[in-house]
Each structure stands twice: as C-alpha cells, then as structure tokens.
Amino acid sequence: MNKESQPTRTEFVTYWERHEKERFSWHSLLPHLIYVGGLAVYALAVRRLDTCGRFWMVSIGLAIVYIIGLPWAWIVTAQRRHASFIRCPQCGDWLGRDASGDWSGSNPNWKLVGQTGKCTKCGTQLFTED
Known about the structure:
Helices cover 55% and strands 0% of the residues. The chain is mainly α. The longest helix has 26 residues, at 56-81. It is elongated and about 65 Å long. It starts with 8 loop residues before the first helix and ends in a 14-residue tail after the last helix.
C-alpha cells in the first residue's frame, strides 16, 4: 500500500465509529430491501412477459445470476472501496471484526489499531500522520 492510499488515524477511527453507529440503523437494511424488491420485480416481470413458459431456461439463468452475482458484486465493491479500513495490506488480518463477524477478544480490534496505528498481527504501520 502506498502512502496516498493510507488513511490518517482520524479517518480510520471516524470510519469505524460511523460503522458501529450505523450497524443497527435502518440504513443497514436498505441493501436487503433493494435486493428483495429486485427479486419481486423480476418475478412479476417474468410472469407477465413469459406467460407460455418458452424462456424458462433463460429466466432461471437470470435468476441465478441475480441471486448470486449481485451480492458478490456488492461485497467485492465494498471491500475494494474500504480496503484500507478493513484489512492489513501486509498480512491480510481483519482490522475490525474477524471473518465470522465476532470480535477477537474483549476489545474491538479497530480500537487497538486506532490507538497504536499498527496491525495487531504483523505490526505494519497502517496510518499516515494526521
């Protein structure tokens, strides 16, 4: 990771504090509502446009692409956009929660990283100076 893409300590702490506040807000439900709404619109469109069932293979293929592809694209996009806040560029360790979504100890990892500025696993310096 080059110096231009490294966040400052303030940006890092602000990102994780905002994440903690928004974790249980209605904003966190918005992607799920869009996803389920898209499935509903798709089902209605397929029923209305393909009344004879001639394109059932295409319909199933598109449904599979939507069901698997859209969440995958959202995850990849979010991880790329917030990579410097989520994972250590050197060892790949999670800077916030671990892969299961749990904290790895009594203190959230991002608080320890925010205080020291270093990865808890490999010790790499993660921040530029404020």
